[in-house]
Amino acid sequence: MLTRPREFASLVGAVALALVVATAFAARADDNPGTAGSTAATPASAASQPTEAQLQALAKEAQNPVGNIASVPFQNNFNYSAGPNLLPLYNLNIQPVIPVMLSPKMNLIERAIVPIINQPSSLPPAFCPPQFGSQFGCGSQLGIGSIQLQSYFAPKVAPNSLIWGVGPLFQFPAVTKNFGSNQVGGGINAVGLVMPGPWVMGALVAQQWRIAGPSAPPAQTINSFLVQPFINYNFKHGWALSEAPSITSNWNAPGNQKWTVPIGLAVVQTNTWFKLPMSFQLAYYGNIVRPNFSPYGQIRFQWALIWPVKRGR
Q1: What digits encode the pLDDT tens for the residues 69-89?
Q2: SS3 of 29, please?
Q3: Thinking of the domain 5-308, which architecture would CATH place it in?
């Protein structure tokens, strides 16, 4: 079943807004000198071909969640064997990141996550209308899930020190009915990392609870946890290997239905094409622990436009 016109218009508007806002802030940031929360060297401008050292600095900065970089990643997740009928589920996460200089010693990193979901029907194939045919299930619905806004206050640190950021996060009700929670969530997120040599290593943690919206049974009330350890090793010419599983828990779920634990690997390429820095990522993650009806795993393809922010170190 296709999404209704109002929901499709909301979807298109969300995509357009993410692009316009990130592009505008990135353009302004280039004219606003400031400071960063990391120790990597300033990457080359988009108008020139980067040297090998500048290319590695650009790649490492793009891997830093609180780095001096504005970006718009388009994260395509192709989940397989999802739901009671083991059908594919696709979601596109649009994740604009905007660094804002608060003072010479402090940045505010703002990140939004807008999920666009193509969700298969949960009806058994035997109940599908004739036009779909039982072999392919009962079709799917396209819409927008719950939107998150993450904020990190990230101080400037000394070279080779621990880079860190902490701040609030908020989750807003899904735009499309039944594509996420109708509650408003709030909580805290934090990240810490080090960047020695070719490595970028650290972890991101987040916890959120229901703070507003309709009440619901405990299993449907927001009380979720995320930890994402990440290890990146950067090779020459902008290539990198990355391991960054998003381990999640719904604390209110019963028994062994709380945790999702993926494991996998990603290949990343960061470079300048058409005079614009960007990165590509191809990854596979399999869920070795998962609740009932969640996907067995996913193939991910991510394309990110990036704008290095010209600020003093």
Answers
A1: 999 999 999 999 998 888 899
A2: helix
A3: Beta Barrel (2.40)
